[in-house]
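JOB MANIFEST
job_type = single_chain_structure
chain_count = 1
residues = 168
[input]
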Amino acid sequence: MIRATRIIRRNALNGGEIVDRIVLDHGDRHRRRMAMQGVGGLGFLLDLAEPTVLDDGDALMLEDGRLIWVEAAPERLLEIRAGSDHALKRLIWHIGNRHIPAEITADAVYIANDHVLADMVRGLGGSAEPVQRPFRPEGGAYAGGHGHNAGHSHGHAHGHGHHDHSHD
């Protein structure tokens, strides 16, 4: 099976023969090694040196130089909005305190569709509406700018709520 061993980031992509594309949700775009099949049927082995987040618009380079286009799949998300910038910042703080992936845009925040968090947002005066769109969450302080890295540590277990302590 032919291997894909390199990622060409969308901002560095300047030509090349794109022979197929893969459509992956956020979770499946964080990979190191996995057998994959493009939409057009081309099978290949993703074989990267380390786990990496594949971004929408990136390309995977096959051993023979051909490229596979990476596309972010639409996902079920919550679109969170507020009546003012200050109110939205307050909601972002509450969401961030729960250590969940979030995509922050100029006027909304997107998180995975979760009825408990939707109720929390509404209880704090915001709106939380289900939407279907690609999910491109922030990388976070430990991810090197490309998605959430599970290798971070806060010095505490994640089996509790995060409202009862601070991260000094």
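[summary]
The longest strand covers residues 43-53.
The CA atoms of residues 117 and 126 lie 11 Å apart.
exit_status = 0
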